[in-house]
Design a protein that fits this description.
16 strands; about 350 residues; single chain; Quinone Oxidoreductase, Chain A, domain 1; Rossmann fold; about 25% strand; 2 domains; about 30% helix; alpha/beta; 7-stranded mixed sheet
Length: about 350
């Protein structure tokens, strides 16, 4: 089968950073689906895994990236119960297994959702990783409950990115007043279009801008941009009994002491935790099914902003380049295989 893989960790400017390869069809386990991939999207994790690694040379075998896909089920394992051959699905997969940038992909059914009926494959492929991350951050880590009366507030640092653009919509769905940050006119407009009540610039001091927007503090903060860079500001603006969640790792120590007086909490969110440790796998399939329902009910919308084709090393290198430039808005999706 055709696939796009890396054989060594290189900067994206190197034409060998991603290569078109031929690989055997993956074997499936008892809980696996074999999916014919129709569309994939690119996330920061793809670029992070691909980048140069000091001391790491040529890999012993090609590594396939890709942690967002939509396609059709070709075969099912003996213990599969939620899907049948021919079903249309979407999912983010597991970082511990080969990625989805391949014609055929094996994935555990428990972390797979039924593709939204009202979206095509490309529109669906834009959603899984970011929808799961935003959902888990808001509803699991920050314990937000849907159906509020907009009495509480949520600040999303990095509102125009993949996770931020889903978090804006989910925050509105949960009944929160949503403030998003964005630094360019086009990204600010994108956040407003998605439903943010206010948009401020993360290049400027956050506390003053929040006060100007009518917020003395905020009950919840989701940081999708830079944990350490915004830590002091987050500690200042978080409300008593509030919560901060970040999806961005840091090698700098975080001073939790300012949170004690406010009895505020901090948590990490990593979408891959469940698949890495094999815990509560079925929760991700359930979340994706719920997101699909909300999409079909027009409560949520896809965050696809750019389509590329075909699925190839050259096209994926272009997508990686755009993502690393910091100029991407929403999600870039690559669809279809070369004729």
């Amino acid at each position: 089968m055709r696939a796009v893989a890396l054989t060594q960790h290189l900067p994206i400017s190197d034409p060998n950073a991603l290569l078109d390869v031929e690989l055997p069809t993956p074997e499936i386990g008892p809980h696996d689906l074999l999916v014919r991939v129709h569309a994939v999207s690119v996330n920061p994790v793809d670029t992070k895994v691909r980048r140069p690694k000091p001391g790491v040379g040529v890999l012993p075998a090609p590594r396939v990236l890709g942690w967002d896909a939509a396609g059709r089920v070709e075969a099912v394992g003996e213990k599969v119960s939620r899907f049948s051959v021919g079903d249309e699905v979407y999912y983010a997969g597991s970082i511990t297994r080969p990625g989805s940038n391949s014609e055929l992909h094996a994935v555990d059914e428990r972390i797979v959702g039924h593709k939204p009926r009202t979206l095509d494959f490309a529109e669906s492929a834009a959603l899984p990783l970011t929808a799961l991350t935003a959902w888990e951050a808001l509803f699991d880590r920050l314990s937000i409950r849907a159906g509020g009366e907009r009495s509480q507030s949520l600040l999303i640092i990095g509102g125009a990115g993949g996770v931020g653009s889903l978090a804006i919509q989910l925050g509105r769905y949960a009944g929160l007043k949503v403030v998003a940050t964005a630094s360019r006119k086009e990204t600010q407009a994108f956040c407003s279009e998605l439903g943010a009540d206010a948009v401020i610039d993360h290049r400027l001091p956050l506390p003053e801008q929040l006060r100007s927007a009518g917020f003395a503090d905020v009950n919840m903060i989701l940081n999708t941009a830079d944990t350490a860079a915004y830590w002091d500001a987050c500690c200042e603006i978080i409300a008593p009994l509030g919560g901060i969640c970040s999806i961005v790792e840091t090698d700098k120590p975080l001073n939790l002491a300012p949170l004690m007086r406010k009895s505020a909490r901090f948590s990490w969110e990593l979408m891959f935790t469940r698949s890495i440790f094999g815990v509560e796998l079925e929760m991700q399939g359930q979340i994706l099914d719920k997101v699909g329902e909300l999409i079909d009910q027009k409560v949520l919308r896809t965050t696809l902003t750019a389509r590329r084709s075909p699925i190839s090393a050259a096209t994926l290198r272009e997508a990686h380049t755009l993502l690393e430039s910091g100029q991407a808005i929403g999600k870039v999706v690559i669809e279809g295989w070369p004729e």
